[in-house]
Amino acid sequence: MTDGQQPIHIVTDSGAHFPTALAPLHLPITILPNRLTIQGRVFREGFDLDTEEAIRLISHQPTAPHVEPPSPAEYQETYERLARAGSAIISLHPSRTISKSWENANHAAETLLGHTRLEVIDSGSVSTALALLVLMAGRMVEKNDDFDHIVRTVRSAIDRLYVVFYVETMDYLVQNGFMSPSHGILGTMLGTKTFVTMENGELHLMEKVRTRIQAVERLAEFASEFTELDDAVLVQHKPYPNDTARMLQDRLAVDFPNQPFPSSLYGASLAALIGADATGLVILESESGRE
C-alpha cells in the first residue's frame, strides 16, 4: 500500500462462485451468504453446506429453490465494520434483474454517504462470471492500484464478459418465468435442450438442440467467436468433468491449443435459476481481442 492511500476491500455475495483453482485465498474479499430454501430447509450458501451437496439436494427437488440475498442490514453491518477499519469498499453483485443483492447493497450504502468511499456495482451477470470480476478487483487491490482505476477497469470488463449454458431440462426455466409453460411442454415432448445466455444483464433463451454432440459443437462455436481471452472457465453441474464437459474440452483444445479451460462446478444460486443439469462457458474477452 502506497503512503496515504486508503486500503480497499471487496464485498460480494455467495452468488459469486469461484472455481477451485481460482479460490480468492488471501485476497481482501468478504463474501456474504445467500439463503437457499431447499426441501423446506434454509441454508446459508457456502456456509451450511458446500456446493456439491447443494447441487445434489437441488437435483432431487422438483420445484426451484428460493434464493434470498443478504439483507440491507447485513450489508450495512459489513460496510460499517470495514469503514471503521479505514477501508474503501467496492461491492460487486449479480445482475439486478435476477437478484435483489445490488438493490439491498445500495440501500445500505446510502447510510454511509460521506463516511467512506463506497462503490456498488451491478455485474450484469451471475455465478462464475461475477466471481471473475471479484477476483480481478481483488488482484488489483493486492497490486496497490487506486480505487478509481479498479472501478473503471471492472466496469469496462463487464462489457467483455460472456456466459452461455446448455440446459438439459427446462423445469426451472419455466418455474422462474424465463420460459412459458407451453414452450417447456413442447420442448419436453420433442426432446430438445435449450441454450441460455446473459445479455445486457438479463437471462435469455437461445436456440434449441436435440443431442449433446450438437450442444458441444454449438458451445465450441460460441467460444470460437473470440480471438483472445483473459479468462475462460467451463462450468457444469458435476464436481468432475462429465461426458459433455470432456467432449467440449477436447473440442476447445483444437481451437484454443494454448488456452486452458478449467472445469468448475457452478454455484447453488445459479442452479436455483436454471436447474442442476447444465453445462456452459464463461468467457472474459481480452481488450486487445475486442479491438
Q: What characteristics describe this protein?
A:
25% strand; four-stranded parallel sheet; six-stranded mixed sheet; Rossmann fold; alpha/beta; 291 residues; 2 domains
What does this structure look like?
This protein is of the alpha/beta class and 291 residues long. It has helices at residues 51-59, 72-84, 101-110, 127-142, 147-158, 171-175, 181-190, 212-224, 243-255, 268-274, 287-290; strands spanning 8-13, 29-32, 35-38, 41-44, 66-68, 88-93, 118-122, 161-167, 193-199, 202-209, 229-236, 263-265, 278-285. The chain starts with 7 loop residues before the first strand and ends with a helix. The chain has eleven helices and 13 strands. The mean pLDDT is 88. It has a six-stranded mixed β-sheet, sandwiched between helices. A four-stranded parallel β-sheet has the order 2-1-6-7, with helices on both faces. It has two domains: 8-34 and 69-158, Rossmann fold, CATH 3.40.50; 161-290, Hypothetical Protein Tm841, Chain: A,domain 3 (2-Layer Sandwich).
